[in-house]
Each structure stands twice: as structure tokens, then as C-alpha cells.
Amino acid sequence: MDLQKSPRFGSRIVIVAFLLLILNAALLCNGGKTSSFFRKVENNVDMPLDSDVFAIPSGYNAPQQVHITQGDLVGKAVIVSWVTVDEPGSSLVRYWSENSEEKKLAEGELVTYRYFNYTSGFIHHCTVRNLEFNTKYYYEVGLDHTSRQFWFITPPEIGPDVPYTFGLIGDLGQTFDSNMTLTHYELNPRKGQTVLFVGDLSYADDYPNHDNVRWDSWGRFVERSVAYQPWIWTAGNHEIDFAPEIGETTPFKPYTHRYHVPYRASQSTEPFWYSIKRASAYIIVLSSYSAYGKYTPQYQWLEEELPKVNRTETPWLIVLMHSPLYNSYNYHYMEGETMRVLFEPWFVQYKVDVVFAGHVHAYERSERISNVAYNIVNGLCTPVNDLSAPVYITIGDGGNLEGLATNMTEPQPEYSSFREASFGHAIFEIKNRTHAHYSWHRNQDGYAVEADSMWFFNRRWFPLNDSTTHTWN
Question: Which CDD domains match (predicted)?
Fold first, then answer.
């Protein structure tokens, strides 16, 4: 008997196909909504300056505000930064690997700045180079007076199937909610290895005369994480610190003195846009608040940078910026539109996997959509499903003093898969060249709870539909 011609066999095929469709719908129908979770809206409150999270380390001229970031293009160097207050002290870093007793020294540089009536401490930056991949290193700073010891782990050697886990934090500030966000991230069992920070650090500019003491307190607050794992910095609007009314006309002055990045390694001309490779990811950082129009340095750099990405070597292409290109909240509505018009066609052309942004103090995740067909005369202004496009994720929900963005546009746009006005952080866990797992964690939940999640299918190596909204066609 020919089973393929049997009516019974044919009916079984139909039943199996139907069950698979039901199963697929069950797996994918968990998005496309405004969350029903309601966080009580209340004023955010700054932690008092005498809180333990702002404590000044004991000892004469003890280093404080210690932080690290990647120091080269590929992850074999680390920029170590710290501040001394009593006197300049040493800019040397002593470091050694876990498996070696040989201790080495790297020499850094010292900078200071003045802002209105504030004079900074002595800010040290030291690049430690020629490190081994996937190795734990210990390091000491403050070698001439009160030394302090920390450690970090270098990333694995770059390769297409190298697993790696990134944390995502944005718009943090220094409130009690900020502390909850950072604690929640630190205790997440999935253990981020590097933070991709999408801008707005201290919010010092929200205080009278842009009180730079709040830059110092913020640096001490986050030291417990950023002294041990790199945070990859993106400049936000609260880093501009442009205040001509008090004579401060140099944008980004405190930020650029305090937070160095390896921008020259990717042939960038400014520290506000640059790229790094880490494990199996190629990360491009853009500046929403630097010129990006055609013929500007940022535009020309990105135009030359995207063709350099070798998806055979680094299959995951991630873009960081501060102002979101897609946003269905009434806060900062359409502020990213001009950058979207210029850069979105490139994101689609080069198949960017995901774009992370902040600025809006809430959470939102889009489907894979694009609006590259639109011009000012054709009227094609509705985003459409596009499997070559990135997912856009807004994660400006760190917990700063300005509070939550709770006013959403209605009805919810079809491209918006999930949104919620809560504080939290996210985890992007790369498994191999084809799959990555993403999860967002609201502060009010247990550490392992995923309030939103999806499996990412890589745009270059596994470009299937990874939509999480069954109604999106």
C-alpha cells in the first residue's frame, strides 16, 4: 500500500501541521502588548550623600571611582580610571594574571578640570595592554599611598561561535531605584560579563549649577560593578553639560575628562562614536548629540565602518545610541527621527541584529521593522515588517531622579511588540553564531524572572522570522 496516497496518511499530515501551527503560536504569542503590570507611580528620591553606596574609601589619597572599559579594538587591553583627592599620587597600575606571580606595571596619565565653582580631583587613566584572552587579572591602583586591589576577566578570543553575556543598563542616575537596578543586575543568575551602557550616567546636570559633586558620588556608587567588569560607554544628553548661563560652553567636559574610550582604535576622530569587537559581537557606539548629518565626521565614519564588519568573524552586529529611533511613548517623541532617516537604510543593508537605546525612561521592544521606503512625497510612512532590519529596544529605565515615562501613545503601534513603564535592566546572552537569548528584568521581580524575553536569530547566519507577535505580518 502506498502510504503517501492513503487518505488516512494525508489526514495525519494535516493534523500534524495543524498541531505545529498551534505550538508555534503558543511559543510566539507572548508579545505585541502593553504590559498589564502596574508599577505605583511615585517620586524618585536621590540617595543621601552620606549613604554607604557613596562612601569614600579610607586611607590617605585612596583611589576612588575606579572603573574600567575596553582599551582597544579586540579586547586585549583595558582602560583603568580612578580619582585621587588629596594629591595627584601615582598614575601607575600594577597588574598580574591569576596564573602568574609576575607583576607588571603600566603608566597612565593625569587630567583635571574646572566646572563653574567646582574643581575636580586628580583623574587618572591608564591603558593596560597586551593582555591574554579569557584570563583573570588582578590590578592595584594608588601605589604610592593607600593602594586598592580589584580584578577583571578579559574576553575570549574573537570567534563566530564564542558565547558571551552582556548586561544592558541606561539612564541610571543615583536614586534608590538606581541602586535597586544595579543590585538587580549584579544578582541576576545569568551573570553579565560586560555592561553595554546606553547613556545618561550621573544626572549631575539636574542639580543647581550642574553640581559636579554628583559626578563624584555616581562614580563611587557604580564602582562596585564597573571596577570589575567593563562598561561600554555611550554619551547621552545628560553628559552634554552645556551651560552658557554659568560660563560653561564646552560640551561634554566632565564626561570626556572622566570616561575615556578606545575611539582611535576604530579610526574615530571623537570619543562619542567608536566600535569594539568582543567575543562574537561587533559593537558600534553612536552619538545622538554630535553632528551626524551627511558629510559630518560621524556620518563619514559610520559609512566607512559598517563595510568593515566581518560577520564570519563577529556574526552579532549590535548598535548602541541614546535617543531611540522608534518610540511609542509621548516622551522624547520622534527625537530620533532625523538619525533614523539617515542611518536606518544602512542598518537594514548591513543586517544589524539589534539597536539598543535609552533616553525614554521606560522599556520597549519592537518587531523587526523598517521605514526605509518613505520620502517626503510618497506617503509611505508606516513601518513594515523587514527581516533584514534590527530589533529596536529602548532600555532607558535605570531609575534616575526624573522618574518613569508613563504616558504612551495610543493605540499601541503594530510594530511595538512589548512596552512597560517600569525600571529594570536587560541581558543579551549570545549562544553561538545563530542564536542569542534576550531578557528584560523589572526591579520588582525576583532576580531570575524574565518580564520580557525573546530568542534572537542572527541576521547573517540564521535569518528566520523571530517575531514574538503573532498578529504582525
Answer: MPP_PAPs
Under the banding of pLDDT at 50, 70 and 90, the label for residue 25 is very low
pLDDT at 288: 98
Tens of pLDDT, residue by residue over 210-249, are 999 999 999 999 999 999 999 999 999 999 999 999 999 9
Give the Cα separation of 414 and 134 in Å (integer).
42
Query: From residue 227, how far is each of 151, 160, 233 by CA, in Å?
Result: 8, 28, 14
pLDDT tens, 396-412? 999 999 999 999 999 99
Residue 439 burial (CB count, 10 A): 19
- Is 238 catalytic? The answer is no
* Rounded Cα–Cα distance for residues 343 and 293 (Å): 10
What does the alpha-carbon distance between residue 425 and residue 399 come to, in Å, rounded to a whole number? 10
**Where are the alpha helices (H) located in 159-237, listed in sequence order?**
176-186, 213-226
Mean pLDDT for all residues in the chain: 92
Q: What is residue 43's predicted lDDT score, i.e. its pLDDT? A: 73
% of residues, the chain, pLDDT over 90: 87
Q: What angle do CA 35, 473, 362 make, to 5 degrees?
A: 25
CA 380/CA 392 separation, integer angstroms: 20
Instruction: Report the candidate in 361, 283, 221 with the shortest Cα–Cα distance to residue 73.
Output: 283
| Domains of the chain with CATH codes | 159-199+272-472 (3.60.21.10)
- Hey, which residues does 392 pair with through a beta bridge? 355
The least confident of 11-20, 147-156, 451-460 is 11-20
In angstroms, rounded to a whole number, what is the distance separating the alpha carbons of residues 245 and 263?
31
**Looking at 124, 184, 210, 332, which residue is catalytic?**
332
Q: What is the DSSP string of 223-273?
A: HHHHTTS-EE----GGG---BGGGTB-STTHHHHHH----GGGGT-SSTTS
pLDDT at 431 over 60: yes
Nearest partner of 419 among 341, 329, 347, judged by Cα? 329
Task: Report whether the peptide linkage leading into residue 189 is cis, meaning its omega lies within 30 degrees of zero.
Answer: no
Cβ within 8 Å of residue 410, ≥6 positions away: none
